[in-house]
Amino acid sequence: MDFxxxxxxxxxxxxxxxxxxxxxxxxxxxxxKFGDGLDHAAYLAAAKEWQARKAAAxxxxxxxxxxxxxLGGTPAQQIIYAQEEARFLxxxxxxxxxxxxxxxxxxxxxxDEQKQRFLAPALKGEDIWCQMFSEPAxxxxxxxxRTRAVRDGDDGGDDWLLTGQxxxxxxxxFADYGIVxxxxxxxxxxxxxxxMFIMDMKAPGVEVRPIRQATNDAHFNEVxxxxxxxxxxxxxxxxxxxxKIMIGTLMQERxxxxxxxxxxxxxxxxxLAKQVRWGGRPAIQNDNVRAGIVDCYLRQFGVELIVxxxxxxxxxxxxxxxxxxxxxxxxxxxxxxxxxxxxxxGGAEGxxxxxxxxxxxxxxxxxxxxxxxxxxxxxxxxxxxNTIAERILGLPGEIRTDRNVPFRDLESG
Length: 413
Ligand SMILES: Cc1cc2nc3c(=O)[nH]c(=O)nc-3n(C[C@H](O)[C@H](O)[C@H](O)COP(=O)(O)OP(=O)(O)OC[C@H]3O[C@@H](n4cnc5c(N)ncnc54)[C@H](O)[C@@H]3O)c2cc1C
Prior knowledge:
The chain has helices at about 5-25, 40-55, 75-85, 95-110, 110-125, 240-260, 265-275, 285-315, 325-345, 345-350, 360-375, 380-390; strands at about 25, 90, 130, 150, 160-170, 175-185, 195-200, 205-210, 220-230, 235, 275-280, 280. It is built from twelve helices and twelve strands. The radius of gyration is 23 Å and the shape is globular. Strand 4 and strand 5 form a beta hairpin. It has a four-stranded mixed beta sheet. It is of the alpha+beta class. The structure holds flavin-adenine dinucleotide. Flavin-adenine dinucleotide (FAD) binds near residues 139, 220, 377 and 379. Pfam families: Acyl-CoA_dh_1, Acyl-CoA_dh_M, Acyl-CoA_dh_N. Its cofactor is FAD.
């Protein structure tokens, strides 16, 4: 296995580096982050402006064909771009769902009219998208989705009316459109009667309620739909084909999430442990602290190697395998345990006033607080372990007794 760039990849990396250097400020300290002091509206505007600039240079969706607004490049080039961009101060967490899952789903399953209408504006940063799959009673098993989509009128009109509730919808409070999974046939088994739609988030009947998190951010939301009218032209794929489309979206999500779990938290921990004194000596000299840092390093190094392995597969034109499940499983745990060590190093202040002590303290605390969510988002630890058990270790699959039962006959509540 060769983890080095090919000659073509190295040349692309140089090209990207030069473009980034001309268009963004480099990240000097590990703690630097884009947008300090910007309020939410100003941050959003800056993110849209950056996205437009990337689109103009062809870097908004590198592997996509040029007619769809991409560069006609390779998935490996997309990863190289992401690696290089991480060295610069640019906005983040605004277009991740749009580019990581929603738009690839529209590109894959959309009609020509849908692609024409939605892809280019979203790549240019004009529209933001969210993904509405999870519900209060449907998360790990999306076969339990109960949001109802019915044809308008007895004779089956050309519109659909959607009623139900989604939850944990990242970015719904600033999204313009979303892909939404709804049940269209209650007499078919759980995975068979689902259909995917494109929903205008500003349509009458849509109510978005942000959920405030322990970090004080409100990153995700509840979305209530009360007879939201969706024209049949906004159906994504065939009726009752939603399960297949959703599986494809989740495969995209796992890989795009995987890229976020590397990093150098261990370096930050080393710096903090040198700065803090415990019992009259630098905390770095404490055995438990050193063991905690080594643990974090090993987890993050493991993640880096698996991501490189996935990238190497992509570079050869293959798909990354089920081992990508381990990236999130190990990487999110590294955030949580490494962040906990930083909080412990900070003592009482580390817990209460980390935000006031500067980025070197605030960031690990944020990782600690969001680590639990990272272990759930995009498939929980247990679901990743099931994937590893079944698809890597070849252990028997879960016993499922509800596979062929009509959805309306399944117990609920
Ligand atoms: C930060 C964050 C962002 C998110 N963003 C979005 C978004 O944008 N759009 C969206 O649709 N959803 C989003 N989600 C929801 C996320 O996909 C679900 O929370 C996740 O799939 C788990 O579903 P659940 O919360 O319903 O838990 P459940 O599925 O109810 O699971 C509860 C517990 O049971 C365990 N469990 C369930 N099934 C099994 C099994 N078969 N074997 C072993 N254990 C099992 C789980 O591991 C978990 O510990 C987000 C979640 C988070 C935390």
